[in-house]
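Side project, low priority. Logging it here so it doesn't get lost.
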Amino acid sequence: MKEQVTFLIWTQNSPGVLLRLTTLFTRRKINVESLTVSVTEVEGVSRFTIAINSDPVTAATIGRQIERMVDVRRVFVFEERDVVHREVVLLRARISEEVQKAMQRSFPLLFEIERKEESALLQFTGPEEEIQRLVSYLEPYGLIEFVRSGRIAVSRTGDYESDLSRSLHELRPEASVGPDM
């Protein structure tokens, strides 16, 4: 059964890593639902957060293949319940100040960046479901512009050593002893 799977990947910050990672998914005809790359607390190391819909066994296999890439330092494969994830959205909508104030009760993490006449540029941070709920709420008023970041995620436990063991080896124990697909 397919479900949302999140890869957290630490790599050397070098040209071509993104291409090699996305090619791995493309070869398997797996659509990347979300991809975010950022610098980390370690100089020269980037962190990729990639979300796909996949069964856990295929995801673990892909994780093992990513793990063998030259520039990759660490790979973690998480099922939905094992990560805390958020996205950031910037949107401009035709709403009055009164409507915006009313929205604050339903969306407490909604912040105004700037206001121009009868529209507002807003920022919201939350899980994908909450972002969709906000967009649905604003559509009747007139959504002028909308952009959202990709998923960012952290392990729910913060214990990456045991997460790595559980994540790759429990989902597909044979991956550590035999060749991958």
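Brief comment: The CA atoms of residues 82 and 156 lie 5 Å apart.
Revisit when time allows.
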